[in-house]
Every structure is written in C-alpha cells, then in structure tokens.
Amino acid sequence: MTSPSPHDRSRNDDEDDPVERMISQTGCAELHYAVQECMAEHQDWRVCQSQVQTFKDCMMDFQNARKKQLMKQQPMSTESTAS
After folding, report:
1. Which residues, 6 or more positions from 52, have their beta carbon under 8 angstroms from its beta carbon?
2. Per-residue DSSP letters for 12-68?
3. Among candidates 20, 18, 17, which has minimal Cα distance to 33?
4. What is the three-class DSSP state of 76?
5. Distance between CA atoms of 23 and 63, rounded to whole angstroms?
6. Per-residue confidence of the chain (83 residues) as pLDDT tens digits?
7. Contacts of 45 (CB under 8 A, 6+ apart)
8. pTM of the complete model beyond 0.85
C-alpha cells in the first residue's frame, strides 16, 4: 500500500494549508485571492500591482494593529536600581 505523495496537489488541502489559515486570520484573504486571480489571468505581476499594493497595505495594517495589541499586553518594564 503506497501513501499519497506530499507533492500531490490534486487533494483538497485548502482547509489544512497553514498559509491560507494565517491569511484568513488577518482579514486580508479576499485581497490575497484577488492577487492570485490577477496573476492567473495575466501571468504578469506588473499588471497586478494595484492588487498587490492593496493586499500589502491590508497586511501592514494587520501587523501594526497586532503590534499595538501586543504592546498593550506587555507590562511596562521598570528598571529598578539596586544599591
């Protein structure tokens, strides 16, 4: 009995794809799909620059919001002076 090849993309692994899962958590998934569709249609990344920039902006907004959230969760470190 042979196990399926890890490179066999005919299986439906969308639900288990860690990249898909990560992008879905950002709220930017639709913009990611727009980039993919543009690339599939035109086969030229230069044609898709507006979609790429919109996706990039969304990801940057997510990262900045996440950074602010993490900064709020960490208590301010106060250096104590020991004599």
Report:
1. 35, 45
2. --GGG-HHHHHHHHHT-HHHHHHHHHHHHHHS-GGGGHHHHHHHHHHHHHHHHHHHH
3. 20
4. coil
5. 12
6. 455 554 454 555 445 789 999 999 999 999 999 999 999 999 998 999 999 999 999 999 999 999 999 999 876 655 555 54
7. 39, 52
8. no
